[in-house]
Amino acid sequence: MKELQYDAAVIGAGAAGMAAALELDKQGFSTVLLDREDHLGGILMQCIHNGFGLHKFNEELTGPEFAGRFIDQLATSSVTVNLNTTVTSLRSGRNPAHGNNAYGPDPGTGQVYNELFCVSPDGVLHIYARAVVLAMGCRERNRGNVRIPGSRPAGVYTAGLAQRLVNIDGYIPGKEIVIIGSGDIGLIMARRMTWIGCKVKAVVEIMPYPSGLTRNIVQCLRDFDIPLYLSSQTTSIFGNDRVEGVEITPMENGLLVHDKKFRIDCDTVLLSVGLVPENELSREAGIELNSTTGGPQVDSTLMTNVDGFFACGNVLHVHDLVDWVSEEAEAAGARASDWLRGRRPDIQIRLKAGANVRYINPGKLNPAAVNKLFLRSMIVKNEAVLELKLDNQVFKTIRKTHVQPSEMINVTLTSKDLEKTCFNADSVMEFSIV
C-alpha cells in the first residue's frame, strides 16, 4: 500500500473537480485529482451537443470542447492526476505524525490530515490530505426510484445510459421511443434519437410544467413536433421479452383520471426523471446531508460540517448549467485555499428558504465577502419578485421576469448590500418568491 501526502485531494474529475483542482494549484497547494473513470471530463465527454460555455467562455461549445479547456490547463499544471482510481473510504481528522490510532491536530503545527483509501492500477493508495473537495457529481434516478408498475422487459434505459450508448459506443437502443420525464438529458436525447432516424413518440411529464430548460423544450421538442404530455403519469410498461408499449394516465387536480388513460406503442423507454447527488462517501465521512437537495450542508465557504471537507458541483446540488458548476467549483478551490492558510469568516449569516423557494445554496453567507448564491423556485410565475429578509425585515427585492423550478436563480450579495442592515452571528436571512 502506497502512502501519499498532499495539501488537497479532489474526488471526481468532471467539470467541478477539474476547476477546483486547478484553483488549488493556482493558489500554490499540492493537489491530487482522483477519478474512477479512465478519462478526464466526466459526463461531459458523452454530451456531444452544443450549448456549453456561454457564460464561462463567452462562446458555444460541445461538452468535450468545454472539458477540453480544463484538460489543457491540467496538462500544464502541477496537479497530480490519478485516473482509474476509486476512492473506497474517507476518514476525517487524522494526522500521520501521531501514529495509527491518533486523530486531531498536531500539537506543534495544528495541522490535520484527512485520509482517503483508494483502489488504483498501482494497488491500494493511502492518501493524506489536509483539505478534501467532494466533486463526485450525480447519478440518474431509475425505474425503481419512481416505481412504475408493469413487467420488466428489455428496452428500459436511463436517458444518460442511452446517450452513452449512442454517442460513445455507437449503439442504437431502439427505434420507437417514449421518454418518461422532461429532464434536460431526456429532452436532448429526444432530439438525438430523432436525428439518428428513430421515432420519438412522446415525452411524458408528471408535473404540470416541464422539468427541463425552456431552450431545450423549444430546440428538442417543438422544433421536431414531438408531443409533450404534461400532468400525465406512466402507469404501466407493457411487454415480456421486449418493451411493447406504455400506458399513460392524465392527472387532474393531482389525481389520476383512469377513464382518460391511453396506450402508446413503442419498443424503448428512456427515463429522464431526475438526478441524485452521489454522496455515499460523504455519509461515511460523517457529513451532514440536506434532505431537500440530497447534497451536503455547506457554509459560505462551501465547507461541510466536517472540517476540511468542501463540496461543489452536482454532488452539492444538481445544476442546470455546467458553467455554474465550474464557477462554483473554482469558488470551492479558492475557499479551500483560504482554509489551508488558516483564514475563517468572522461571522456567517444562516440562510433560509422561505415561501415558494425550494432550497438555497450555500446555507450561510459571509457579510464581509462576495457571495454567489443559487436557489430554485417551487412555482412557475411571470413578473415574480424575490424578497430578501434579514431577521424578518425586508432589505432587498429583486424583480424576475420569469421563474420556474427547472431554472436556477443566481443571486450575488456583497457587503454593500448589507451596509444599512444590523446583523450578528444569530441572524437569519430568508429568501421568498412573491
Provide a descriptive summary of the structure in words.
The chain is α/β, with parallel strands linked by helices and 434 residues long. Strands 1, 2, 3, 4, 5, 6 and 18 form a seven-stranded mixed beta sheet that branches. Strands 8-16-9-10-11 form a five-stranded parallel beta sheet. It has eight helices and 26 strands. 43% of the residues are buried. The chain is globular, with a radius of gyration of 23 Å. 19% of the residues lie in helices and 34% in strands. The mean pLDDT is 93.
Quick structural summary:
With 434 residues, the protein is α/β, with parallel strands linked by helices. It is built from 8 helices and 26 strands.
Please compute the radius of gyration using only Cα atoms.
23 Å
Low-confidence stretches: none
Helix count equals 8
What is the global morphology? globular
Structural class based on helices, strands and sheet pairing: alpha/beta
End-to-end span in angstroms?
A: 57 Å
Overall mean pLDDT score?
A: 93
Biggest β-sheet: count, sense, barrel? 7 strands, mixed
Helix content: 10-25%
| Quantity of strands, as a count | 26
Give the topology, please.
Elements: E1 2-11, H1 15-26, E2 31-34, H2 63-75, E3 80-82, E4 86-94, E5 113-120, E6 123-134, E7 138-140, H3 143-146, E8 156-158, H4 159-169, E9 176-180, H5 184-195, E10 199-204, H6 214-221, E11 228-229, E12 232-238, E13 245-252, E14 255-256, E15 262-265, E16 268-271, E17 275-277, H7 280-284, E18 309-311, H8 322-340, E19 349-353, E20 357-361, E21 364-365, E22 371-377, E23 381-390, E24 393-403, E25 409-413, E26 428-433
Parallel strand pairs: 1-2, 1-6, 2-3, 6-18, 8-16, 9-10, 9-16, 10-11, 19-26
Antiparallel strand pairs: 4-5, 5-6, 7-17, 12-13, 13-14, 13-15, 19-21, 20-22, 22-25, 23-24, 23-26
Helix pairs in contact: 1-2, 1-8, 4-5, 5-6
